[in-house]
Amino acid sequence: MKPFKCLAILFLLVYTTCSSLAQSKPDTLKVLFVGNSYIYVSNIPHLVSLISDSTQTKLLTAKSTSGGVRLSDHWRGEQGLRTKELIKNGDYDVVVLQEQSMGTIEQPDSFRIYSKKFSDYIKEHGGKPYFYATWAREKVPQFQKTITEAYNRAASENGAGIVSVGEAWALAKKYRPEIKLYQTDGSHQSPLGAFLAACLFVAVLSDEIPKKLPNGYGVLDANGESVRITRLDPLDITFCLKVVDELSR
User: Which domain holds residue 145?
Assistant: First the structure.
């Protein structure tokens, strides 16, 4: 075989191998969650990252949270929050904004003001804002329409994305009225409620709905020991993915 032909074949093999590796390597997005216990209860950012392993886009998640805080508290750095510093220095592709659970009902003007402040600030530092449209509390489901409208308006006015978790919960409850998405306080997310939220985040941010997911998730602690985050009935997982698929159409 002539030397030139050998080199051509070798080049083709190397190019094909590199192309295959590039195609098989998943994209990554750095995501910062900004909010309160509607984020950190049941480890929603961790779940989002772990579920994204079943897609072509790995979501690398972090959070800036404190119990009961509003977006205005994050902006002013209350309770030791360093949210603006994290956005400025963290090189995040996506920053998820979540208002206090009753904020869009009780303080809509404040929500609107700080939605714009944060959206502009996120874009200034190279990220895209997304709004985490939360659910109504269990005893006042009629508030869901107001909450959803407030988040939709904020997303539209600020050129932001939106993850309509409250609407996903409403759809799930339409099909299964007895489904346990809340903790006993009627406010915070149960493990199943958190899982449904995390599935929707993955679908929206990665533009892909996993076809199949494991029924257990865990992380390693500082000592390298496995710590279980959640374990779910496979039928609940199938149900959640169907809800996300229907909501995404």
Answer: 27-248
Does the residue 17 lie in any domain? no
Instruction: Return the axis-axis angle of helices 165-175 and 234-248, rounded to nearest 10°.
Output: 120
- Asked whether the predicted pLDDT for residue 8 surpasses 60, the reply is no
Q: What angle do CA 20, 25, 29 make, to 5 degrees?
A: 150
AA letter at 224: G
How confident is the model at residue 175, as a pLDDT? 98
Residue 167 lies in a domain: yes
Alpha-carbon span 131 to 97, nearest angstrom: 5
C-alpha closest to that of 113 among 164, 165, 153? 153
Q: What is the pLDDT of residues 74-130, one digit of tens each?
A: 999 999 999 999 999 999 999 999 999 999 999 999 999 999 999 999 999 999 999
C-alpha angle 132-44-56 in degrees, rounded to nearest 5 = 85
Residue 49: enclosing H or E segment and its boundaries? helix 44-51
Tell me if 7 is assigned to some domain: no
